[in-house]
Amino acid sequence: MKIGIAGSGMIVRYVLENVWNEVGNIEAKAIWCRDAERDVAENIAGDYSIKDIYEDYDEFLKDNSFDFVYIGLVNSLHYEYSLKAIKAGKSVICEKPFTSTAKQAKELLDAARENHVYVFESILPWYSDNYDEIKNRLPEVGDIKLIQCNFSQYSRRYAGYLNGTVLPVFNPLLDGGALYDIGVYSIHWVMGLAGVPEKTAYFPNIGYNGIDTSGILVMDYGSFKAVCTSAKDSASPGCCMVQGDKGCIVMHSHPGECHKIELTLNGADPVCLDKAPLGEPFVNVYERILPIVEKDEYDVCYAMMDKVIEVMQVMEDARKGAGIKFSCD
């Protein structure tokens, strides 16, 4: 897989250092950046032997040395830059959240189908062997009653935010906030098991500029309920639980990691469900994507992205229902 990188933020360097080097069979051939970020992009290119640096995105997309574009930009740019890449005949791997609205997500998938290219969201739970095992063993807990997910991570940018420095994660104009930054993991985790809820309601703590710094999403499935807690203004240990009338599954990690999983049936001792060590969770994403691409399994890719559209719809409905406005609204 030959990749061109769109962006020069911290996530780009992280993926280059900790993921692509470990996976193998992935080459970063070019990087696009804004004019003001040229120095940063040059440092990245030098550190990871990336040959070409572009400041013109259209020229970047004309480069035939790569066939995939990795979108590592702020949330508000995911749709625009992914769509341009797809229309240029490039496949796309986009960081989470895939888009800011369900309509945007559908347009990207429709464009991928039309141009016969791949499009993936880099979302951790769905690419995990351990998460697959949770799905396989889920019927053993009986009729589900409750699902709970917590991903609360105090942001090192929060103190600055309180003092008036608004970086992307706390900027509604850049489609930030707790729900879209880390809540997306919990929602994917729940919906990968339970599908689309009948109703949702988001109860956020709103900051001075209208962004959610933390919040609780309630997902009503009729016969059972799910609750997703997300926070950038406070922290607590991550945990996910599924409770049924015959037992429970407890994952002693946040929904992006998927490890330390136990199945406990009523009256029985806990059984470990981990099928693989934690390792680097992002590696799982590419180890799943590569075989799909190598086998030309476009239908597998598109089926996954149909599910992503459903997640984006739930997130959009939750956000708008709570009165949180993005640049795309």
TrEMBL record:
<feature type="domain" description="Gfo/Idh/MocA-like oxidoreductase N-terminal">
    <location>
        <begin position="1"/>
        <end position="120"/>
    </location>
</feature>
<dbReference type="InterPro" id="IPR000683">
    <property type="entry name" value="Gfo/Idh/MocA-like_OxRdtase_N"/>
</dbReference>
<dbReference type="Pfam" id="PF01408">
    <property type="entry name" value="GFO_IDH_MocA"/>
</dbReference>
<protein>
    <submittedName>
        <fullName>Putative dehydrogenase</fullName>
    </submittedName>
</protein>
<dbReference type="GO" id="GO:0000166">
    <property type="term" value="F:nucleotide binding"/>
</dbReference>
<dbReference type="InterPro" id="IPR036291">
    <property type="entry name" value="NAD(P)-bd_dom_sf"/>
</dbReference>
